[in-house]
Amino acid sequence: MDFDFKSKAAAKRQKVEDEFEFDGMKVGRGTYGHVYKAKRKKNGDEKPTKYYALKLIEGTGISMSACREIELLRELKHPNVISLKRVFLSHSDRKVWLLFDFAEHDLWHIIKYHRASKANKKPVQVPRTMVKSLLFQILDGIQYLHANWVLHRDLKPANILVMGDGPERGRVKIADMGFARLFNSPLKPLADLDPVVVTFWYRAPELLLGARHYTKAIDIWAIGCIFAELLTSEPIFHCRQEDIKTSNPYHHDQLDRIFSVMGFPHEKEWEDIRKMPEYGTLMKDFRRSNYSNANLPKYMEKHKIKADSKEFHLLSKLLTMDPTKRITSEQALEDNYFLEEPVPTHDVFAAMPIPYPKREFLTDDENDDKSDTAKARQNTSNSSSHAPNAKRVRVVPPSNTSSNPIMTQQDYQQQKHVLQGYQGSGGQSNSQQNTLSYSTGSNVHGTSSTVYSGQQQQQHRY
Ligand SMILES: Nc1ncnc2c1ncn2[C@@H]1O[C@H](COP(=O)(O)OP(=O)(O)OP(=O)(O)O)[C@@H](O)[C@H]1O
Ligand SMILES: [Mg+2]
């Protein structure tokens, strides 16, 4: 490349550290990098309190195909999908920074709060209306992604964010869609990756039996797992953590856990199970009779969810073993569960004070990060650890731990506003999206939605 051009381009390029302040404001560490709370240095017309999340991607450099995919992700626009606002490529150290809106809460921390209340013998369940609103918005966001042929591939509570006080209070934002493919280079065998903890708890049975491709149905299974976890405050398919180093998708203990809750699948319920690559191993390793007493109604009844309730019916349609019979996000959005009172609300907290603590800052030095990873490795054998916890060491500034909910008139309006717009927003036919990978000119988000006007009819030229 022409030297002159290169230096001119470098001089023009905006640097993340010139535009944003985030020193000492690390809020999280995940599989792919570090997340910082950030605000603009010169904020122009923007409110001084507007915060962003800056994600520094682990490793150096980025492939051309990842670059292209990031550009595609930037086109996605839906109220329940976190928007990727900008990408900074820092040439001197070959780092990649992604800029998102900041979400004060996520389902991992929310569920952790409720689990802790149980452990303290003062159990407080996630309110039932809140569960319904959360599930509805998760499905709405996923329906949008699926309609645009974007598969999430890594749905789990830590990737479901919820906005704190502000104009989008209590709104779900799905995060990290497509990251599992973007940053796990397809050219690099799984066995070569750094040994970080990945959770298998939300992984669909067909993946554990060697299915070779990710599908929409795999995301739906994960949503079923998250729904069950919201209802019970327990990860439904909790299993001892494993290392990503295993390049084999077959995971005996995770399958055992699924069968212990659901029962062993009958061939008449899941005909194609025989065609799964690991079917032979399954038949060798497992005996149906060991699971004859297990079934989902029994498990949920133990957690006080009645088998004749609307929530149970929807749950069982999401957690259907045969992926071809599993419900789609569109169908799920039209389920009777969402029509029954109380109907879902935009603000999942329904204008009530938010009891969950705000995000805390982590120490930012590299040693700490290494010990995080080391901790995570140790925790792989700790069966009671709750997955993402293993990756984090939190430093608590006391002033940051209490929430300060401000209830505005608008919040009260929102609570009363019982989602006319929500009903029907998922009812759009998917038939026009019949090409694999990113489809062309797809008409996204429900045309009947009255709530999110201005974000309808997005054109995606992928
Ligand atoms: N936009 C955001 N606003 C606020 N916090 C965020 C945002 N995105 C991520 N976080 C938080 O930062 C932490 C780390 O996130 P990150 O996505 O890196 O890891 P993870 O979700 O635990 O795992 P994975 O990397 O597999 O998605 C989590 O607590 C997450 O909720
Ligand atoms: Mg994440």
TrEMBL record:
UniProt-listed Pfam families: Pkinase (PF00069)
Bias (Polar residues): 376-387, 435-462
Region of interest (Disordered), residue spans: 359-406, 421-462
Catalytic activity: L-seryl-[protein] + ATP = O-phospho-L-seryl-[protein] + ADP + H(+); [DNA-directed RNA polymerase] + ATP = phospho-[DNA-directed RNA polymerase] + ADP + H(+); L-threonyl-[protein] + ATP = O-phospho-L-threonyl-[protein] + ADP + H(+)
Domain Protein kinase as annotated: residue spans: 21-338
Keyword terms of this UniProt record: ATP-binding, Kinase, Nucleotide-binding, Serine/threonine-protein kinase, Transferase
Domain of life: Eukaryota
Annotated positions binding ATP: K55
Family, per entry: Belongs to the protein kinase superfamily. CMGC Ser/Thr protein kinase family. CDC2/CDKX subfamily.
Protein name: Cyclin-dependent kinase 8-like
Source species of the chain: Saccoglossus kowalevskii
